[in-house]
Amino acid sequence: MTILKSCYTVMYILAASSVRASTIGVVVTGIFLSVWTKWGLFKFYWIIVKEVLTILSIGLGIFGMYYWTLDASSITATEGLRALHDQGFLVNQL
Description:
It is a single chain. The chain is an all-alpha fold. It is built from four helices and no strands. It has helices at about 1-15, 20-35, 45-80, 85-94. The two termini are about 20 Å apart. About 10% of the residues are buried.
């Protein structure tokens, strides 16, 4: 039980801190690199599509990981190993 709860607690802490900082850094450096090269930000349609998909995936990753690990951490804190059979935990796990 302790290992399960500890894993989700650590994932929650990482989602709240370093994952957010690193994704912000990725976006900023990506914008700088595209502006300072011949490709530009809006010169080609495939770059625009890539930028939109990247921002969507980063947003989903930041907020999704934060809330999903928060839910899993709270479920494992209250139910312990019984969380492995909890329907909410199983849906959250997928």
